[in-house]
Amino acid sequence: MKAHSPGSRALRRWLRTGLLAAALPLALVSAGVTAPVHNPAAERTNGGWAGALWLGSSTGTTNTTLAHVRSVIGANTTSTSTLTGAGVGIALIDTGVAPVPGLPAAQIVNGPDLSFESQSNALRYHDTYGHGTHLAGIIVANDTATGTKGLAPKAKVTSIKVGISNGAADVTQMIAAIDWVVKNRNHDPANPIKILNLSYGTGGTPSYLKDPLQFAVEQAWLAGITVIVAGGNNGNNTASLTNPATDPHVIAVGSSATANTTSTSDDTLSTFSNLSTTSRSLDLLAPGQSIASLRVEGSHVDLSYPEARVGTTLMRGSGSSQSAAVVSAAAALLLEKRPTLTPDQVKQALVGSAVPLQVGLGASKGLKQVNVHNALSRTVTTTAQSWAKSTGNGDLNLTRGGAGVTWHDGTKLDGARSIFGPFDTAAWAVYAKQRVSWDNAKPGVWMGNRMAGDGWTGSSWASKTWGAAAWPGTPWMGGTSWQDPDWSGRYWAGRYWAGRYWASSYWSTNDWSSFWG
């Protein structure tokens, strides 16, 4: 797919969001334009273009500040205003985080980098795309330049990077990341991981009863981690949410528009938000339009959408990605106050206390917006959700939904293969259920493949960092080394990226059926 000139066709494609199933971040850039603004140099392709994972939108130029969001979700009342998310860990599986000034190092942990960029010393852990940093900012920002503060500023965010500068990532990398979170959820006893934010989804629509990705999130849920997933940005008439938001156990989140008022009476369902016309719909809405959060200077979205910049440190972003991050922060505030709640009880409290929309399509569908104040006092029961559980032994291609990462020579990753070679979902499901898909003796080895180092090294800007490792062998197609000439083509200096978008030309995704929220 080549870069498109602005126009309605391009806008429709961008409104399908994406990192690919190759997965994609589910986010839109709200630049106040009616079509995306492209940077051809940043979007060059060799055998297929993964595309911008944020969408161009026409949601206006007014910034929705985090202070405004805090008010809308009832996090600034007498009972909630002192809550900070302290003691609660949030895992953010995304495109990494960048050491921008507004992101406090004390609140960030760099878990393993499982992305293709992990093999570059200059790119490892860093957010070359700009998506993960934006979401982390919604949760824990402390930007002194603008006074912007995250909604749960004392939560501890553990970043696990899977997406690169053009978003390319295979679903097996996402599964490995979820497995790692389950295995290492208690790595910080003072801030155990109780929440997993997945602003990601694939276009595949398999039954959750066999799907490996949905099996993975269910294992996290059963391990005591509340999984919050972006529902997708394909529009209100979309037949299904993105996978794994389709799994009934997790919390599926869509975007609401606040009309820039503190009253919720005029809030509406965002037109880009998936609604699902044939299956399970959204559990919750949260503000997700024109959210002003942290900007990564020189990242893919920063160069692609200069109109979305807010001053020098912030940028507007829209999508169910942002809404999921808002709900993750809300859950952290709830768990700070009520730390013994199970994931099922967190879901009961958040969904049961949410405020119904009063106007528009969302109201007619009975959709509700998260409210922290109400959730704090919501009565919950010990009754567990009764949904049947996935076996996890399904077809990976059904999960991918036809999309897949593509090597620069055009070779596509599909079938029963991970990025390293053959992958048996049935065998993996047994290991994942026993929490040994990541080796006990060699903690950086997943399903027999070395993906990271064997523990914490403390060698990055974050408060704690998991070690790196060279990937052995060759990519899935064989014969070509993981190390490419362009690995050194970009570097991090002075808080911005310079050089070439090697990932956009060496790794790509080949269609628009999968998404980062």
Question: What is the secondary structure topology, with strand pairs?
Answer:
Layout: H1 8-14, E1 24-25, E2 27-29, E3 54-56, H2 66-72, E4 89-94, E5 108-113, H3 131-140, E6 142-143, E7 148-149, E8 156-161, H4 171-183, E9 193-198, E10 200-201, H5 212-222, E11 226-230, E12 251-257, E13 268-269, E14 284-287, E15 291-294, H6 300-304, E16 309-310, E17 314-317, H7 320-337, H8 343-352, E18 355-356, H9 360-364, E19 368-369, H10 372-376, H11 396-400, E20 405-407, E21 417-418, E22 421-422, H12 425-434, E23 445-446, E24 449-450, E25 464-465, E26 490-493, E27 496-499, H13 502-506, E28 507-509, E29 515-516
Parallel strand pairs: 2-3, 4-8, 4-9, 5-8, 5-25, 9-11, 11-12, 12-14
Antiparallel strand pairs: 1-10, 6-7, 10-29, 12-13, 15-17, 16-17, 18-19, 20-28, 21-22, 23-24, 26-27
Helix pairs in contact: 3-7, 4-5, 5-12
CATH class: Alpha Beta
Main structural class: alpha/beta
Oligomer: single chain
Q: In what range is the share of β-strand residues? A: 15-25%
| CATH fold-level name | Rossmann fold
The CATH level-2 architecture is identified as: 3-Layer(aba) Sandwich
Give me the number of helical elements.
Answer: 13
State the end-to-end CA separation.
Answer: 21 Å
Which bin fits the share of residues in helices?
Answer: 10-25%
Mean pLDDT: 83
Descriptors:
9-stranded mixed beta sheet, 13 helices, single chain, alpha/beta, 3-stranded antiparallel beta sheet, disordered C terminus, disordered N terminus, Rossmann fold, 517 residues
Please characterize this protein's 3D structure.
By secondary structure, this protein is of the alpha/beta class. The strands form 10 sheets. Strands 4, 5, 8, 9, 11, 12, 13, 14 and 25 form a 9-stranded mixed sheet that branches. The model is unreliable at 1-22, 30-59, 485-490 and 498-515 (pLDDT under 50). It is globular and about 60 Å long. It has one domain (1-517): 3-Layer(aba) Sandwich (Rossmann fold), CATH 3.40.50.200. It has 13 helices and 29 strands.
